[in-house]
Amino acid sequence: MNSARVVLYEPATVLLSQFGMKRQLPEGVASDPLRVAKLDANTMFFDVFRLAWDGAILCLGPPLSNCHPSFTDLGFTGADDAPIAARWQHPRITQQYALRVTLNGQGPETLDAVRLTDGTTKVTIAVSQSQAALLADRRVLVTLSRDNPLPWIRDWATFYVRLHGANAILLYDNGSQSYSASEIAVALADIPGLKIVIIVTWPFPYGNDGTPGQPSTENFCQTGALDHARRCFCPFARSVLNVDIDELLPADGMSIFEQIEKSPFAVLLFRGIWAEAPGIESRDALKSVRHADCTYAWKKQMQTVAEGEVEGLCRTKWVAVPSRCGEDVEWGIHDIYPATQNARATQSDWRAIDQFRFHRHCRQINIGWKVDRWRSSRNFDAVCIPDRAMERVFASTFAVEDNR
After folding, report:
1. What are phi and psi of 260, to 5 degrees?
2. Is the pLDDT of residue 304 over 70?
């Protein structure tokens, strides 16, 4: 059996502490140690890498507007201290809160390193090369994951390879302590049909949620990973599917990759339904749970779907064709968002919501890192009903994979 190619990628990270700086705590956070621990106070740039399409260098990171001491100037030079022109693109929407600094002009396409200076301190950073060729014409499954058990990650990947024809995995590992990046790759590399597995080390603090009902401006980690995926790895990908390890989308007769590729759209969204495994009341019971055990769906949501309504369903996830995503849109966690007036005015031309596909959001495929929701619902029989469609999908998908 041929194994998939494995690539382990380490970003060229730049830290605020290298300049004697840090990101200030937002109001109301300093008094809460848990929120302080989740805030990214030290990342200046997640990565500094070359763009595939024009050779320019991109510095990608969180906004620098809330740093202490504040920046008066940040300059970029080559090894000979010759200045390099920089174009700053500040966050345009709260759903993709990334800062992008593009270095272009004479010579940056030949540089292996650049120097950053604030006028007193100079930091030399190696420039990572574009990885776009690795995923050219691939159907890519992308996610961010932290300490999810390896059998869960393998089941998730197997599902999308077998049912949807994914042939590339791009996984951002958010500082897992239970295993190494190479162990993740080993767990995935022998899945038949998978051509390449890329594990990106992404150890940055995840951030905090915003006020209920309001977008968060503290969650840089996952949105940063998606923007990095778009620009460093996926510009030439055939199509890209963004789902979490606990989210499974039935095929419904056609691969989701095939569906978006054959459509006229750049982006296709799909909503979700909560799925559960019964009888999970302890951490010990959770250890044996797999996706295929989550064969019950929330009755209220299933009724909502049957009535053709959408209120109360799980938030959308997306599949996209990168080459159709112009610079006036931004990749976010739950949607690909318009970032200009023109993109907002033309949404119906480039973006659609599938009203007939619903991913299953598996409540027990969760280690409680963000929300403690791994227990089965109280009054289970009143809340949940058997999901016969997923029973059939699981039976066929994991028939030779169930090695518990």
Report:
1. -70, -35
2. yes
